[in-house]
Write a structure and sequence with these properties.
The structure holds two protein chains of two kinds. Chain A is of the alpha/beta class. Chain A contains eight helices and six strands. Classes of the chains: A alpha/beta, B alpha/beta.
């Protein structure tokens, strides 16, 4: 499976550098190495979800507890989380660092991913969620740090879109 | 059995817990008994009070966390029950007021009114301790045991579909949220 181990490691290390202590996740192909890293890290609280929206509540609880967290999900998981984002994270000003694998965009071969790819950015914009791309390995560490800083200072969700260029090697 | 009487019966026990409630009657009635800085009322995002409680319990394993949930909210996030059971924090108590109704939007019946068994669902999801209670005294005993115990517990409390005249309190959502977090951070310093 050509999911980039190198980029996954870079992302995971950057999350650790930001003192992320809890990760909620729902597996998808591009995220397998990241989730495995979290699973093997005794210092990380990994919460495997049934549905991504739960992760918004779990991150809110972590924030109240003083623990920094992040959500790992596919863009379809982001779509499934929207009410939680609006009615909890936005309503209650909860910092939410969302790492979203950007399926259905350039180079996508799976037909079932393509509709979600079309709407991901328009919906992020409609929700007023600042979003940025993770596409070059050299920028991963800084961009994750900056996104985490922005989420904490603005007390709102911030999205990082994990692109094919970063996550897939073939 | 009235939800307000249930809440009143355990109110003294809540003092040293972190309490997360759902919206609507549960929030308004607990607030009417006297707000405390350790109470957080999730006034929307139906289904996510239990997830918020789970996040708290996983990050603060020494702290007892109580979630006051409802049948309508729990039915919206049954998957969250499986996540809760998967990690089963020892000091998390999940209390579900089941009035078989979506009371705050006009009292439309939920699926528990036609036989859906939330206790059975919680047990089958893997929650280690489950119970259904139908009297205030059995509620008080079950919740008190859950708080003093050391195992994830889900208690289904069958209550009447009645609630307060109004749901809006004088506590703003953000004031509640910042006060709750500040309270928890002050506990960590002590």
């Amino acid at each position: 499976m050509p999911v980039s181990l190198t980029s996954s490691r870079l992302i995971y290390d950057a999350l650790k550098e930001c003192d992320i202590g809890l990760l909620s996740a729902l597996p998808e192909t591009w995220l397998v190495h990241l989730i495995r890293s979290a699973d093997e890290d005794p210092e990380m609280i990994l919460v495997r979800l049934a549905k991504e929206e739960e992760g918004v509540g779990i991150s809110a609880g972590a924030h109240f507890a003083g623990v920094k967290s992040a959500m790992l999900m596919q863009n379809h998981g982001f779509l499934a989380s929207i009410n939680g984002i609006v009615s909890l994270a936005h309503l209650y000003k909860i910092p939410l660092l969302m790492l979203i694998s950007y399926r259905g965009s350039l180079g996508e071969r799976d037909p079932w991913q393509t509709q979600g790819g079309n709407v991901t950015e328009p919906i992020l914009r409609a929700l007023g969620i600042p979003y940025f791309f993770l596409d070059a390995p050299g920028a991963v560490e800084k961009r994750i740090r900056q996104a985490q800083t922005l989420a904490e200072s603005s007390l709102q969700p911030v999205a990082l879109l994990l692109t094919r260029d970063l996550m897939w090697e073939e | 059995m009235l939800r307000l009487d249930c809440l009143r019966s355990v109110y003294p026990e809540l003092e040293n817990c972190l309490v997360v409630t759902i919206m609507g009657a549960v929030a308004a009635e607990l607030h009417s008994l006297g707000h405390r800085p350790n109470f957080f009322y999730l006034q929307h995002a139906m289904g996510l009070a239990s997830s918020t409680g789970l996040g708290l319990a996983l990050c603060l394993p020494e702290q007892h966390v109580i979630v006051f949930d409802g049948d309508g909210s729990l039915l919206m996030n049954l998957g969250g029950l499986s996540t809760m059971a998967r990690y089963r924090p020892k000091k998390l108590s999940h209390i579900v007021f089941d009035n078989e109704s979506l009371l705050s939007v006009g009292g439309f019946p939920t699926a528990t009114s036609t036989g859906t068994d939330l206790e059975g669902i919680a047990r089958a999801a893997g929650v280690p301790r489950v119970a259904t209670v139908r009297s205030v005294e059995s509620f008080r005993v079950a919740v008190t045991e859950a708080i003093r115990g050391n195992e994830l517990t889900t208690i289904i409390a069958k209550v009447k579909a009645t609630g307060p005249a109004a749901y809006v309190t004088d506590l703003s959502l953000l004031e509640n949220r910042f006060q709750f977090r500040r309270h928890i951070q002050s506990l960590k310093k002590n």
